[in-house]
Amino acid sequence: MVNHPLFPLLLVWFFGAYILKSSAITDPSDVHALIQVKLAVDPSTIREGSCMATWNFSVDPCDNLFGMYFSCGIACSRDRNGAQRVTRLKLDGSGYSGTLSPAVGNLSSLQQLQIEGNTFSGSVPSSIGQLHQLVILDLSENLFTGRLPSSIFEGLRTLQILNINGNLLSGTLPITVSSIVNLVKCRLQNNQFTGYLPDLSSLKQLRLLDLSGNRFYGSLPLKFPPSLFSASFRNNLLRGGFTKQHVRALNPALVVLDVSTNRLSGPVDASLFQHPSLQQLILANNSFTMLINELSGEDMHMEKSQMVAIDMSNNRIGGLLPRMFAVMPNLSSLSLSNNAFYGQINVSYAIKALSERAGMQPLQRMMLNGNYLTGPLPSLFMKLSPENTMASLVDNCLPSCPSRLFFCQGADQKPISLCRLYNVNV
Ligand SMILES: *[C@@H]1O[C@H](CO)[C@@H](O)[C@H](O)[C@H]1NC(C)=O
Ligand SMILES: *[C@@H]1O[C@H](CO)[C@@H](O)[C@H](O)[C@H]1NC(C)=O
Ligand SMILES: *[C@@H]1O[C@H](CO)[C@@H](O)[C@H](O)[C@H]1NC(C)=O
Ligand SMILES: *[C@@H]1O[C@H](CO)[C@@H](O)[C@H](O)[C@H]1NC(C)=O
Ligand SMILES: *[C@@H]1O[C@H](CO)[C@@H](O)[C@H](O)[C@H]1NC(C)=O
């Protein structure tokens, strides 16, 4: 019977008839849609004890929540006409595989659709765009493939959380994504999306945007959503520099910005470090070459800087070590590893690392390895201790960096021939 080709139809017919016979409590179109959703899941992946295993449509879903049947997976509430409507479809991550039935778009009172952490595959049904009351859509960590149809975002005006990260979705993002005007969190990371970064500046509520681990190309955005707090463009194919124009585009509420592991190149405009609210800035693993428009420490007004962590490692940034990092009051982690900084290390770095001054956080992580820095080391460096500071000066141009100094790690400095390319006095 179960293997009979008409089995799904018979099942729908049988349970449909049953529900008509009993006085249905749940809206019949919701029941029909739930039956379709279950039928689209490979029955062998509906494990005993999982939510869906308890979905027995010979009883009314909303009338039997938390009992032997429908013990989890859905929530209901009564609508204006007194009918019970399914408002939440939230599956456990117990390994369901199969497709997401387009009938899910008929659960028209749905506010939460969450099926994350399973192995659903196939395309994301465009009927999701009919869910005009949806607040949370979480399809993350599944195996969905294909493009997102543009209609999918058109009706989602109430959506606040969109998590479709960790799938195999590809193609460009539909521009209708900018019509989800109430969106607060948008996680699209770790897919295969491509194209230019979308203009999301119309999303006035957006606080979190993660586009990392895709194939977006073009330059950094010239428009940002006004409320954006955290933005990650990490691990894409972005090119171009971090110009004054790009710095000006950053919204003043931004706290976390990660553009690491792209193909960004050329100069970074130092006004970036004067951003009024940025705390974490990650520029690592690009091909940036220098900082420009850097003013002297005093003139940069670093006393207002909120920066806590800066990572510019693995670039090609040359020049003297910038003084501004040593006077950022809250900076506690700085990585300038594997660049082309040269010249002497200013004593202000040691002063910052040793700071006990109120309002001046000590630099707890100071990674300067893999540059062309020369000696002599300011004597204050001898006061650094491995208990308080994580530091490395390995692979520079110091005349000696004895292994008894923890930040030398007993490792080699660069050969003199290489050092002379950057430093006249070696
Ligand atoms: C579904 O519920 C009916 C009525 O309680 C019961 O007879 C039937 O065995 C149940 N089916 C499954 C698969 O548990
Ligand atoms: C959605 O409901 C309508 C009306 O009941 C029905 O005609 C349609 O087939 C349903 N869609 C799906 C995908 O089941
Ligand atoms: C940069 O790339 C290296 C090597 O691939 C990796 O180990 C490191 O975590 C990356 N750094 C950042 C900040 O992404
Ligand atoms: C630095 O950190 C402290 C404590 O976390 C915080 O109160 C302060 O606003 C931050 N910013 C500056 C500029 O001191
Ligand atoms: C360290 O920086 C200060 C302030 O910019 C400067 O006056 C001083 O000469 C620098 N010291 C060295 C050794 O470069």
UniProtKB/TrEMBL annotation:
Its main location: membrane. One of its GO terms (cellular component) is membrane. Residues 1-24 form the signal peptide. It is found in: Membrane. Pfam families: LRR_1. InterPro entries: Leu-rich_rpt, LRR_dom_sf, RLP29. This is Leucine-rich repeat-containing N-terminal plant-type domain-containing protein. It comes from Ceratopteris richardii (Triangle waterfern). The lineage of its organism: Eukaryota, Viridiplantae, Streptophyta, Embryophyta, Tracheophyta.
